[in-house]
Amino acid sequence: xxxxxxxxxxxxPLDSERLMSREFATLMVTASVYFLATGAVNxxxxxxxxxxxxxxEATAGFVMGSAAFSALATRIWFGRTADRRGARRILVxxxxxxxIAFVMLAMASSVGGATAARLVLGASxxxxxxxxxxxxxxxxxxxxxSQAAALVLVSxxxxxxxxxxxxxxxxxxxxxxxxxxxxxGVSIVSGxxxxxxxxxxxxxxxxxxxxxxxxALLPGVVTxxxxxxxxxxxxxxxxxxxxxxxxxxxxxxxxxxxxxVLIRTTLGRVPDIIGPxxxxxxxxxxxxxxxxxxxxxxxxxxxxxxxxxxxAGLSLQSPSFxxxxxxxxxxxxxxxxxxxxxxxYDVAGAIVGPTLGLIVIxxxxxxxxxxxxxxxxxxxxxxxxxxAPRWHAAHG
Length: 396
Known about the structure:
- The protein is mainly alpha-helical.
- The protein has a single domain (21-203, 211-395), classed as Growth Hormone, Chain: A, CATH 1.20.1250.20.
- 82% of the residues lie in helices and 0% in strands.
- The chain has 14 helices and no strands.
- 58% of the residues are buried.
């Protein structure tokens, strides 16, 4: 502690812009470990529903999307709790709920059991995403908040990229149940790491922050359409890979996550430098092109290239729109703003699985993926016609 005080006393103005600290690094590791477990489960669960539980693609889409309903129902509460009690509390709760969900999945013998596990996992993910992004922005200098959001998101996708490869290897050696139980243990480790973060208790006696924060609504709507493509692609990636003759979808997950890590670590400050409207616009254009390519180039090579491009599109979408959502928001209400904003991820997740599952059954994967490209195009129109004028009016 004394060393930290000395550094503050002798720091230069540039030090106030320093982002990476021991606590920020601990936060990134905590999130990566949790999403390692989540990534492992997400990669195998659609095949588990179809092959082991006797479901269809639409059933698998419903099970995967069910997590969004519980996430949406709990995220606002998590955001307000973080504002009043501190983000660390909900990170520990989220990791604990994740462990419970993975144990439930190990015990599941029906689609209903798998759905119940996904519902618990949805609440778990809501706590982890809301708490991690809130704390990351809280730890960042004001002029580096987009970069902080990008790096926190890197930690999510680093775990989700490694998880599927580990899960595929473990399934080949053991069984689904062992994968789920291992994921439970990994989630517990994440909770223990979260307890090493400072408490940062927030403002327990202050007036409760808004349940729905107005500043996050418009960027949230754009995000709803923008992440529709990525969510749909990732949900059906394991089944689509098998459809086009690619036995192991793990490499595609890894390529997507590696792309996100690369872009967000090297270009994470782009929204801070050129502005979130320009950065978000470019990201949406890339997303439209990526999903069009995936739909038309139905080969393993096309899938891998598409994985990289759709990940590239998402890489700058989220930091850009997060920057818009928290612009001008006080520290006391930042959890509420982040919860409102990230709730649109849940809405997208709730819609995309069942919707694309039905399109796949009745028309195939090509129309399903083209519909996600169209959704991203709608997001681009909303960004330029509604969000951009308000942003430019507020910032001159």
